[in-house]
Amino acid sequence: MSKLKVLFMGTPDFAVPTLETLCNSNYDVVGVVTQPDKPKGRGKAMQYTPIKEVALKYNIPVFQPIKLRQDECVEDFKKMDIDFIVVVAFGQILPKEILDMPRYGCINVHSSLLPRYRGAAPIQWTIINGEKETGITTMFMDEGLDTGDILLQERTPITREDTGGTLHDRLANMGAGLLMKTLAGIAEGNIERIKQNDEESNYVGMLNKSHGRIDFSKKACEIELLIRGLNPWPSAFTTLDGKGFKIWKSDIVATKDNDSRVTEDMFKAPVGQIVYVDKSSMLVNTAEGLLDLQEVQLEGKKRMMIEDFLRGFKVSVGTILG
Q1: For 31-72, what is each residue's pLDDT tens digit?
Q2: Which residues pair with 7 in a beta bridge?
Q3: β strands within the chain, DSSP E
Q4: Which end of the chain has the least Cβ crowding within 10 Å, N or C?
Q5: Peptide bond into 36 cis (omega under 30)
Q6: pTM for the full predicted model
């Protein structure tokens, strides 16, 4: 029996485990479609996308259309006699002409539990919004944005230690496994399609650096979630003595109970004010609770634990961050 043919579409690191798994499976990856190379770094050298690097490793033809619906490569796809198109964080909308092309359909691997968190950055927003769990959804693609019928889902808890980075990596690996179950189930005809309830949906847009600016008039618990969600990119930041000051890790001090550093007056200080400093810790007041800074980075310096930072930089109680 001949292998089922798959055309893969994806671009960033998140898509790599899925493509690697496909390349080492009983499916025939006949082509890879990814975004065009972009200049990067001081020298502005053109850099391959992570997916292109995988494709070249496995000697798979690579297509990099600027706009898929306008590119002549669509004619090449028609000649491939494709069984599946698999899409993982590709970055372009697929026209109906392509959606209708494969024998079994276009399958998307999405990094949230649909229908909630449709859109570009669900991993980060699930942490920022304080969700207790998230997961992976595979779905049939239609002409909408993450609106197609759900096929399979796999869940994972969001722990207090999770960051945008750790959750990204865990979901990327989960997505690879769930896709293989999905393709097998479709080919065997034993997966039920579940229509999404649009009333439960929530679109989340792309992140940019401005999302990381810390507003200390928010609660400490909200700021701590922002810090974790935006680690490693675009990162949460404020300013200290006029310099950029990133906060990579923090904790929350909700009351003065069981913490010898804390007094009741600290909670009455202006928001954003440093209310406590010793050799190994720094506390900042917020609208509700204190933020205990644990890993930071001053502009022009490396990331470091707070005790290492305080060894080389004098910080005074009463200083206002931001």
Answers
A1: 999 999 988 877 778 899 999 999 999 999 999 999 887 677
A2: 31, 85
A3: 5-10, 28-33, 38-40, 45-47, 62-63, 84-88, 106-110, 118-119, 133-140, 150-157, 203-204, 236-240, 243-253, 274-277, 282-285, 290-298, 304-305
A4: N
A5: no
A6: 0.95
